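Narrative summary of target 7.
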Amino acid sequence: MDNNIYQVYEDEIKALEEEIKLLTEKDEDIQQESTSFSHEEILKSIKSFQRETQGESKGHESPSDLEAQLESLEADLSFLTKLTGFQFTSHSKKTVERTRERRVEKHRLSGNCYSLSFQLEFQLLETQSQEKVSAVVTDLSIVMEPREDSDVSKFVSSVQEQRNLVTFFRSLSTYAEWLEHRRRTFLHFK
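Modeled conformation, tokenized:
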């Protein structure tokens, strides 16, 4: 009879361990999914964080150290925005499928490059084999505001077929920068 009681307890423990494992995986998925944040919402969060840390001095770092780090990060972000012309306004990520060997995430990204606005939607397939992890863009959809220039729409179609995000960002940055130079030149002569 004692063995039966122990077996019942062991079965209950195994069931609870499985439930804990499933809930942990579900919690990880929820934490990985992000919502869209606008530039203004990020700045509000930064300011809120600054206000909270000004009153707290018991942390690992002093508020002045955190403020210096924040200012450094803001300066880095400003430099990168000026250098590339990209300003991202929102991003969202959702895990579509997750197993041990592969994970599929759906990303939505929108922003501006100088005066051109864009929206991207793509799926990222990450596969893991032994100690190697690879990531591939599987679906890519690019939406840009309509322009008279048909070369831009041809370029966007080509990038969508190739599913090459690096080419898109590099080329868009160069094109938008020269478009901005051209616009300023024409304004100068008006």
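The chain has five helices and four strands.
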